[in-house]
Amino acid sequence: MKSLVFTLMVALLVGFFLLLPQPQQVLAPARLAMAATPAELTDNSFMLGPVKLFDGEKWRDERFVEIKNGRVQQLYLDKPDSTLPWVDGNNQWLIPGLIDSHVHAWGDALEQALNFGVTTVLDMFGDHQFLAAQKAARASTAQTNKADIYGAGTLVTATNGHGTQYGREIPVIAAPAQASEFVAARLAEGSDFIKIVYTSDKALRRFRPSIDLATLTAVITAAKAQGVLAVVHIADLPSAGEAIAAGADGLVHSFFSEPVSNELLRQMADGQHFIVPTMTVMEGMLANKINEELLLKTPPAALTLAAISSLTERFSHSPIPSDRYALLANNTKQMAEAGILLLAGSDAPNPNTDHGVSLIVEMVLLQRAGVPVLQVLQSATSAPVEAFGLNEVGYLRPGYKADMLLLNQDPMADLTTLLAPAAIWKNGWLHQPELPTANSALNSGLIADFNTDLNARSGGFAASSDSLMQGKSAAEISVQQGVLKVTGTTRPGFAYPWAGVAWQTGNSIENGSDFSDISGIRFNIRGTPGQYRLDAFSAGSFMPVSHRFTVTADWQTIELPLTVFPGLNAKAVSMLLWNGPQGEFSFELDDITLD
Amino acid sequence: MSTLQTQLKVTGLVKRFAGKTVLDGVDLSLAAGEVLCILGPNGAGKTTLISAILGLIGADGGEIELLGQSQKGTARSMALRQQCGVMMQIGSLSANLTVAEQCDLFSCYYQSGYSAKELVGLAGLESHANARFGRLSGGQKQRLLFALALAGKPKLVFLDEPTLGMDVEARRSLWQQIRQLKQQGVAVVLTTHYLEEAEQLADRVMVLHQGQFIASGSPAELKALTRYKLVQCCTALSDEALLALPGVLQLSREQGGITLHSSHAEQTVLALLTQDNKVSQLEVKQVALEQAFLQLTAPTAEHSNGTKEHAA
Amino acid sequence: MSSLAIYQKEAWYDLISVWRTPGFVLPALAFPVVFYLFFGVLFSPAGSTSHAAYMLVTYSCFGIMGPAMFNFAMNIASDRAQGWLTLKRLSPMPVSAYLLAKMATSLVFAMLIILMLFSVAAIFGDVRLERSQWIGLALLLLAGTIPFAFIGLLLGLTLSDKAAPGVVNLIYLPMAFLSGLWLPVTMLPSFLQQLAWVWPSYHLSQLGLKVVAMDQGQPVLLHLAILGLTTAVLMGLCVLVFRRYTGAK
């Protein structure tokens, strides 16, 4: 009886505590009414403060930001009484999420961008289907691990012009008369604005064919008529001048061919044209020091091996005098002083850049070029919004998306604090970057002997050819009599034709394998006599470093030290690709060994 | 002395409060089945003595032996407490608990004692079992406290003024219970103001005065110790003449009669009759224990002188 | 009877005895609830649930302190005066059973106060906490009765039954106020805020506020250490006083 009563009492107590109301959402509003850290919050409605607040345009007196359903609701001088959970801002620096005004996004670009606090990117040429697929997220404040994307979709270029060399068939424009239809087709595909590639006849160097001035003017006019912006890729002063004169809203590159003219400065300032200098990508062609200094000495935690490959990748072009970088910096400075709206853009993932992280490099370069730091902050926040007429992002003001960065240090004093933000919010949700996993190291020794099958000690073998990129080459592989037999054809078609056998070095093509302990590679080969090529790929890069060698009909052992692959990121080698010679070929490969 | 087992033995017990000696070398011993009555005026040290024996206060000297075990300091073992019953003079129970509840609580303290129901019966409070302690009369409270003192079927019982506030009926019934205890072989220490109680119950009476036992014996012995007798009569003799009679210590007059306190009553009566042959209503009385007690402890040295040598 | 039964009955009858004292039960249970309803719920700044949660913690502390201090101080003083304690000491009942019974009664009252305040907070104050927070707070408050029980014990052993209630009130009410249990401690003048460190109730309330993340941000260990030290000192004093009271040398 007594124990029954006791049990009943205990049951009642348990029942009471089970009945006590819990917060409806995962998070208790009352629970975080004081001093939560960002990580404790699992909602996109909260009160953040006290912070030092940069709203995209200026530093404000308000110290508390009310976030409701992922948007800034209100700013307050003092902490208002609110039912919202309170996240302690620790008096740190709060700025809008960054906007990268020049990227080429595919794959995991938007994830990588967000990992570095870039919450919005402007794509200056990419797969319009990728753009179309990602566009819907812009209006939403749902939790996401991707940056918002606005984009040009397919760019406007001439036959064989810049933009056609990447192996993907794109429409090109041939005559001014096609302009209106061409622009309409782009908008129908989902382009937010029109990007045009233009090189003037007056330019000192023409790398590739370009549309003519008449077509440029026609496309710009058509874009304006259809209510969108037209921005122009240029690489020299005459092209810039003509594009501005033709009515381009902005230029998406600066140039280092010659000093900017006062006339262009005046024209751009007066006509409120903007420019995305993309100094980082050019720094890679010229000085090539900044990544080493800012990123590679002590890599940020979120930096992937693939990103490092891309950051260390080089353009293959004839050397340009490195003092041209000073010229570029000076042009940038003069543009800033002339009052031209500067937008920070990285041109990722071109060589020397990668998504997200390179925008911060770009900001540092802008500042070092002499752009006032406040203007640098604007160039990655409010300036792109003003330039492109965006209306969701770039400001921390009521109604804007709660894309925010909380910084440990004053960015006015040191922009590199952006490399390690205290917190990143996307749509009001705290974004915690998934840190890259390390790749596995490969030891020296036999990789594959093909005695019975294709099996390799690490990774695997597969036939590979440019048919992937709509090229005209082909390859097949098989194991015959204890060797790997490769047959195929290498035919011109794709810009970089290839056919042969690829060895993916590890489980992950993104991470590759660590070749730090490897000094060289050795293999036995015989086949159709000719010039063969071994391509080595750094993780994250689709631009191989190549080494050529001669193959005969007799077996020979080829020994190549890794040093024959300059610029290969030995910490992350993703793939080795044996290419056959031009035309039809057949070769046998055996006993691939690492030394 | 009895050959029965000695249940309580106190030797040379000394207790001082603030430099004042309250117990000054007290000795006593008590055998099973014996009822010891300690007499003494207020302030004589009765309660102090019991408190010291029970370990409620520490003693400054002397030895205490309870149920054959020598006691040190104030600690009293659980086993000892199981076998002792105590009814203190200032003993009040929680006013909010009923008789039955108090009995239930106390009965659970003892390993082999009375059940709660038996205790209610012992107290004679069956009809008040559900009455809260605070609502009981003084006598009923005392009965309950008495019953609780017996809760563990003790071998040694201390009763400090047990019949205080009881009516005659209840008192006689309690006496009966104490007699039963004695028959069961329980050793009882009793303090009381009611000398009739001592006469009725005590095997031995000890008189405590200023921290010392000044007399000890059976009630009869004690009475005999007091050689005084009362001579009452009606006489024409003057006070001077009466006080001059042999053996007369004191004289009092009331309603025409006189009372003489005499240490040698026979000689007093002989002399009285010789001097006044018209003496009427002559009566010689034994002094009641109560009066003997008063005389023994009266502040006048004259009266106590003669008895000093009898101190135990 | 087993000694466990002694502990059970002692606790049970102590509880019954206290429960039959309306002069103790009503204020002990009603004051915290009424105060909380007024200052935590009705006069809460509009739209603020954090206020109700904050006040829930402080008034719960206020609530559980009362029975612990009063039950020990008043009842022990009166048991001493009436000889009840003497009688118990003479009976074969462990002193610990007596003290633990009082502790159990204090805990039962603390639990009742917790149940009532939590209910009021949940129903009228719209306080929403994680289950772990509700339970953690309740457990903390129950454990938090210990130092106050020792304060009560010390007073009960030293004061007369007449003086005990007054003296307890004289300590209880100012201590509650100065610890920020009626008004948030931050609303007190700064010298009083500094003084708040002296009171065990301040540290208990800060621990409670930590559970709902509204404390002033000092480390948990600091509060625990001060509470532990206070309890140890009080315990030492109680032992000294009790020794003197029982005449042990």
Outline the fold blueprint.
The complex is a heterotrimer of chains A (595), B (312) and C (249).
Chain A: H1 2-19, E1 46-53, E2 64-68, E3 71-76, E4 86-96, E5 98-103, H2 109-115, E6 118-123, H3 128-135, E7 148-151, H4 179-189, E8 194-197, H5 213-225, E9 230-233, H6 237-245, E10 250-251, H7 262-270, E11 274-275, H8 279-285, H9 290-296, H10 305-312, H11 324-337, E12 341-342, H12 357-369, H13 373-379, H14 382-388, E13 404-407, E14 423-426, E15 429-431, E16 445-448, E17 460-465, E18 474-480, E19 483-490, E20 499-504, E21 520-527, E22 530-538, E23 545-551, E24 556-561, E25 573-579, E26 583-594
Helix pairs in contact in A: 4-5, 6-7, 11-12, 12-13
Chain B: E1 6-17, E2 20-31, E3 35-39, H1 46-54, E4 61-66, E5 69-71, H2 78-83, E6 84-87, H3 99-109, H4 116-123, H5 138-149, E7 156-160, H6 168-183, E8 187-191, H7 195-201, E9 204-209, E10 212-217, H8 219-225, E11 229-234, H9 239-244, E12 248-254, E13 257-262, H10 265-275, E14 280-286, H11 289-297, H12 301-305
Chain C: H1 3-19, H2 22-42, H3 49-82, H4 84-90, H5 95-123, H6 131-143, H7 145-158, H8 164-178, H9 190-195, H10 200-211, H11 220-246
Helix pairs in contact in C: 1-5, 2-3, 2-5, 3-5, 3-7, 3-8, 3-10, 5-6, 6-10, 7-11, 10-11
Q: Which range does the strand content of chain C fall in?
A: under 5%
**What's the end-to-end separation of chain C, in Å?**
32 Å
Distance between the termini of chain B: 13 Å
Tally of extended strands of chain C? Answer: 0
Shape descriptor of chain B:
elongated
Report the order of strands and helices of chain C.
HHHHHHHHHHH
What does the average pLDDT of chain C come to? 87
- In percent, how helical is the residue content of chain C? over 70%
Q: Structural class of the helices, strands and pairings of chain C?
A: mainly alpha
Mean pLDDT across all residues of chain B, rounded?
82
Supply the helix-strand structural class of chain B. Answer: alpha/beta
